[in-house]
Automatic annotation (TrEMBL):
This is F-box/LRR-repeat protein 15-like leucin rich repeat domain-containing protein. Residues 157-294 form the F-box/LRR-repeat protein 15-like leucin rich repeat domain. One of its GO terms (cellular component) is SCF ubiquitin ligase complex. It comes from Camellia sinensis (Tea plant). PANTHER family: F-BOX PROTEIN SKP2A (PTHR13318:SF258), PARTNER OF PAIRED, ISOFORM B-RELATED (PTHR13318).
């Protein structure tokens, strides 16, 4: 009944006619009667619970069409709708947001990812004015947005947990720092390509205010240096994933701070960070046994489960095999074997001898096989 393109108003009318026929025949909705004794004769008579169930079977376009059927439907959907994606909208997304945000005030997740820039600051300001429960917001590739949007979100959406502003190149570090002072519940922040926003100054504010941060993407933010990363390491000890790919200014000091303070780190991207040396690798390897004796008795199971599972050191040409092998030996979940690459070393021809635990197991298995008789 509901296709990928969503329902048009005439489709809704046809569905309603079928519902009436079904009800009149004494089917699942007995005599098309509601629990309160009324009879479903118009769209507005459908109980809210049934309406929300019907709408949930459709896509986001269907939701928008359904909300325009009548005021009762609009009010019911507005109360029940918590997630919405408008990424399918190729034109006029800005006007659509201006129209919908005042109606759908209970939204917790809003995806506004764009193939071409459509959103303007007035749309984000409208979101901030009405959607105060918002926790997950995707504004990626919104090239037209300025710091006005960040200022509005800081005041209107303090409960943000996930924010994706990758590719929003017009944001400044002042705007980002201002946001971090109010949105202190952030756990996921994607700043990939935000060259002007992601500076050491902004990262210091994030590290000071957003202590719950777990995932941060700083890919290709060329102004990020050791001061910013070290501030994150000291202020956000629960970091699980950090992408520093293309952050060409960072040195071993950043990795050492992360190794010493972010003991839950699972994924680290250092692609093209050519100032990284063996010192950084050995600090990661040694972090595996940091405070080992104290942790072992009380957290044995959890300790065994934690540690790096992804490490990208492609184009880090200063690294040598012994240092990288030490990391691989310390973290059994890092793999170099075919089909399970989680230690990425492309562009480092001198590291081809590095191998994961799987290679040792395969070698032992082969050695245990009986040799054929001559």
């Amino acid at each position: 009944m509901v296709g990928r393109e969503g329902l048009m108003p005439e489709d809704l009318d046809l569905c309603f006619e079928k519902l009436m026929v079904f009800g009149a025949g004494g089917g699942g909705i007995e005599g098309a009667k509601m629990g309160c004794g009324g009879v479903i004769t118009e769209w507005k008579d459908i109980p809210m619970e049934l309406l929300l169930r019907i709408v949930s079977l459709g896509d986001d376009r269907t939701v928008i069409v359904a909300a325009g059927v009548c005021s009762g439907w609009r009010d019911a959907i507005a109360l029940g709708l918590t997630q919405l994606s408008l990424s399918w909208c190729k034109n006029n997304m800005n006007n659509l947001v201006l129209s919908l945000a005042p109606k759908f005030t209970k939204l917790q997740t809003l995806i506004l990812r764009q193939d071409k820039p459509q959103l303007e600051d007035n749309a984000v300001e409208t979101i901030a004015n009405y959607c105060h429960d918002l926790q997950d917001l995707d504004l990626s590739k919104s090239f037209k947005l300025s710091d006005r949007s960040l200022f509005a979100l800081a005041h209107g959406c303090p409960n943000l947990i996930k924010l994706n502003i990758s590719g929003c190149t017009a944001f400044s570090d002042m705007g980002l720092a201002y946001l971090a002072q109010f949105c202190r519940k952030l756990k996921y922040l994607n700043l990939c390509g935000c060259v002007k926003a992601a500076s050491d100054k902004a990262l210091k504010t994030i590290g000071y205010n957003c202590c719950q941060l777990q995932l941060l993407n700083l890919g290709w933010c060329e102004n990020v240096g050791d001061v910013g990363v070290m501030s994150l390491a000291y202020g956000c000890p629960d970091l699980r994933a950090l992408d520093l790919c293309g952050c060409v200014l960072i040195t071993d000091d950043s990795v050492i701070a992360l190794a010493n303070n972010c003991l839950h780190l699972r994924s680290l991207g250092l692609y093209y960070c050519q100032n990284i040396t063996d010192i950084a690798m050995y600090s990661l390897a040694h972090s595996r046994v940091k405070n080992k004796h104290e942790m072992w008795e009380s957290m044995k199971n959890r300790y065994m489960e934690e540690g790096l599972v992804n490490l990208n050191i492609s184009q880090c040409t200063a690294l040598t095999p012994p240092a990288v092998q030490a990391v691989c030996d310390s973290f059994p979940s890092l793999h170099t074997c075919s089909g399970r690459h989680s230690l990425i070393i492309s562009g480092c021809l001198n590291l081809t001898s590095v191998h994961c635990a799987c290679a040792d197991l395969a070698h032992r298995a082969a050695s245990a096989l009986p040799h054929p008789a001559h």
